[in-house]
Structure formats: structure tokens, C-alpha cells
Design brief:
By secondary structure, the chain is mainly α. The protein is 60% helix and 4% strand.
Length: 179
């Protein structure tokens, strides 16, 4: 085996079912805070898949907004990982999501009926991302982050709405996905 300048990836400290959370010491991997972090990480990973699809499809504007949303989710993770610290998510982040939601809503033909995901590959990936963001939002509430981190909760709540609208934009006018 060759030596590497890369940092070690496996510390093996989590083999006992615990992990370290900044400022909280060792916690069970089943702790509500760890579940939240995992759900947000999964949402960001699915958004990464959607971003790669958007870039490959020439949807550069969608790709850019997804990257911004992934960065927002990382800051939400900072709020969760360091709850005693000053919040990383504030009113400006909620405003960013609100503004993006209105911008995309204004240029997207939104259906009045139920949408079955799958009108396009990119739209479907965004819908999966949206559903994982919704799970992360529920996890935030279960873990007690509705108090003290209201801007993070607002941003995540509205993020799922934004992803719905961007997914419909990506789908275009694929009538087969409606009804």
C-alpha cells in the first residue's frame, strides 16, 4: 500500500454506533440531531445529482440555483451541528429562497392538478430532492430546531416549494406528468 498525503477517512471511532458532534461530544448515531444532519446531507446529495443532470442538459441557470441551495443546506447543517453558536441561517437566507421562489414561479407554467413525478429526468431528480428536503424539515422539528432556529426551518420549508416549482419548469409542458 502506498502512502498518501490525504487525511484519513476512517477513524473507526464510530464502530460503536456513536459519532462526534461539535460541542456535544459523542452522540448515538440515532440521536435526533444526527438524523437531521443525515437527512440534510442526503438532500444535498440528491440536489448534486440534479445539478449534474442540469449541467449535462444545458440547464445552466437551474444548475447555478441548485448549487446555491446546496450551500444553503450546508449552512443549515452548521446550525444543527453547533446549536449554541450564532445561527448561520438568517432572514436574508429566507428572503433568498422567497425571491427565487417568486422568480421561478413567474416563469413556470404551474399545473392546477396533482403532478406525478417523472415528466423529465431533471424534474424527477428535483422531485426526489424535494421529498428528501421535506423529510429533513420534519427531522428538524422532531429534533427541536423549530425553536431557536426559526429561520433555518423557514428556509427549509420554503426550499421544498422552490424545488417543486423548478421541477415543473424542468418538466416543461409534459402533459403525461399531470393528472
Amino acid at each position: 500500500m502506498t502512502e498518501s498525503n490525504n487525511p484519513p477517512i476512517s477513524t473507526r471511532r464510530g464502530d460503536d454506533g456513536t459519532t462526534t458532534l461539535l460541542g456535544a461530544g459523542r452522540l448515538s448515531k440515532a440521536d435526533a440531531s444526527i438524523v437531521v444532519l443525515g437527512d440534510i446531507d442526503e438532500a444535498s446529495s440528491f440536489l448534486g445529482l440534479a445539478r449534474a443532470e442540469a449541467a449535462g442538459a444545458g440547464a445552466d441557470e437551474i444548475s447555478r440555483v441548485i448549487l446555491d441551495l446546496q450551500r444553503l443546506l450546508y449552512r443549515v447543517m452548521g446550525d444543527v451541528a453547533m446549536p449554541q453558536e450564532q445561527n448561520f441561517i438568517g432572514e436574508s437566507d429566507v428572503g433568498y429562497v422567497d425571491d427565487a421562489l417568486e422568480e421561478w414561479r413567474g416563469r413556470t407554467d404551474l399545473p392546477n392538478e396533482f403532478v406525478v413525478p417523472g415528466g423529465s429526468r431533471l424534474g424527477a431528480l428535483l422531485d426526489v430532492s424535494r421529498s428528501v428536503v421535506r423529510r429533513a424539515e420534519r427531522s428538524l422539528v422532531v429534533a427541536g430546531y423549530a425553536e431557536g432556529h426559526t429561520d433555518a426551518l423557514k428556509a427549509v420549508n420554503r426550499l421544498s416549494d422552490l424545488l417543486f416549482v423548478i421541477a415543473r419548469n424542468a418538466d416543461g409542458r409534459h402533459d403525461l406528468s399531470r393528472g
